[in-house]
Design brief:
The protein is an alpha/beta fold and 354 residues long. The protein has helices at 5-10, 24-29, 40-46, 49-64, 137-156, 172-183, 197-209, 224-228, 271-276, 286-289, 291-298, 311-316, 337-348; strands at residues 36-38, 67-68, 73-76, 82-90, 97-105, 117-125, 131-136, 163-167, 189-193, 217-220, 233-236, 255-258, 278-281, 309-310, 329-332. The strands form two sheets. The protein has an eight-stranded parallel beta sheet with strand order 10-9-8-11-12-15-13-14. Strands 1, 2, 3, 4, 5, 6 and 7 form a seven-stranded mixed beta sheet that branches. Strand 4 and strand 5 form a beta hairpin. The two termini are 23 Å apart.
């Protein structure tokens, strides 16, 4: 999506040192006369994993109770493809936004070297109903999904975590790696595994060429079981239908981050991993959508009441995260329109409006 030169000139280059609340009054009282079009490159210039993790941490508990998020609507476009609508809106005058994410899921796109999931995000004012901005929803989703995992690892992974294992080398993988590195700067080694080894090697080479990661070593491995035994943090972003991570392979103190599954037939870890771990979720939808959890409930591995808490409860300190250096923790996310809206807010309020 192309952006206007005015939008280009009005964006800050970095939000790490910028509080989006500083521009909120301007965003509310002086909306642009037409929606700002925010391209992928412009969105990347506004968002960093550090800033979004911090923004979610600081804002999610306060706004989550004021945002209405209807169940996502899904329509079959073909037997294998679908269109999803994810609306949300705030009832708080201090957070005056409506957001709608339009998502297409075309899994066959892998044969065309295209993303299977693509999206557009539209932001409106709850005061006037005016369209405020339209942005790349695919990139926004990659940032918010990875930063939710990164934030969870601040509560659930060991502070001295050294080895990150990344299972999957798709579009989400580099974001998850950067988010975990931002959340756990003690990490010194990243090992990538993918069914197609060349994709893992390409990702590692790209990470080595990208910005300085402070001496972190990036490598690949063809032995999934072996590297699972090494991981202090294991992050999974795949479309797996059969378990990839075996619970017996997890070392004491490991943190397992499950991102890929969002249907009952998808599953990235086995029952033993769920049985061994203290399980946390991003939001309640995970209890009815995630294949790992739904299957574990059905098989009597754990009950819903055994889930230890959600992300908001962790942030607010209502549920205890990691309790000691030996326990295994599991975080399962399925995504949330609330976090979409927070990410879009951070992008939009980084505008210097005239």
């Amino acid at each position: 999506m192309a952006s206007s030169s005015n939008a280009t000139n009005s964006l800050t280059s970095n939000t790490d040192d910028k509080n989006p609340k500083d521009n909120r009054a301007a965003a509310i009282t002086k909306p642009a006369s037409s929606p700002v079009l925010i391209s992928t490159d412009l969105l990347r210039s506004v968002l960093t994993h550090h800033s979004l993790i911090r923004h979610i941490h600081d804002s999610l508990p306060a706004v989550s109770a004021t945002i209405t998020t209807p169940i996502r609507q899904s329509y079959a476009v073909s037997p294998s493809s679908s269109l999803l609508l994810m609306p949300s809106w705030s009832s708080s005058p201090s957070f005056p936004y409506i957001g709608v994410k339009l998502v297409t899921h075309f899994p066959q796109n892998s044969t065309l070297n295209l993303p299977g999931v693509q999206a557009s995000y539209n932001l409106f004012s709850t005061i006037t109903g005016q369209a405020l901005a339209s942005m790349d929803g695919t990139e926004l989703t990659l940032y918010r999904t990875s930063c939710v995992s990164g934030l969870a690892s601040k509560f659930l992974a060991r502070e001295d975590s050294r080895v990150l294992v990344m299972i999957g080398a798709g579009n989400l993988a580099p974001h998850l790696i950067k988010a975990h590195l931002a959340a756990r700067p003690s990490l010194r080694r990243v090992i990538v595994w993918n069914r197609t080894m060349q994709k893992a090697e390409d990702l590692v080479e790209s990470l080595r060429r990208s910005e300085d990661h402070g001496g972190v070593c990036f490598e690949t491995s063809g032995s999934l079981d072996e590297i699972c035994e090494l991981g202090d943090i294991i992050s999974c972003a795949t479309n797996a239908q059969a378990p990839l991570v075996k619970g017996r392979r997890l070392k004491a103190g490991a943190h397992l981050d499950l991102v890929g599954s969002f249907t009952h037939t998808m599953r990235e870890c086995d029952d033993e991993a769920i049985r061994r771990g203290r399980v946390f979720i991003d939001n309640e939808a995970a209890l009815v959508e995630a294949g790992e959890l739904v299957g574990a409930f059905e098989r009597g591995v754990i009950e819903q009441g055994d889930v230890c808490g959600n992300l908001v409860e962790l942030i607010k300190g209502e549920r205890e995260g990691r309790r000691n250096a030996e326990e295994v923790t599991v975080f399962k996310s399925v995504g949330s329109a609330v976090v979409d809206l927070l990410a879009a807010q951070l992008v939009y309020e980084a505008l210097r409006l005239p």
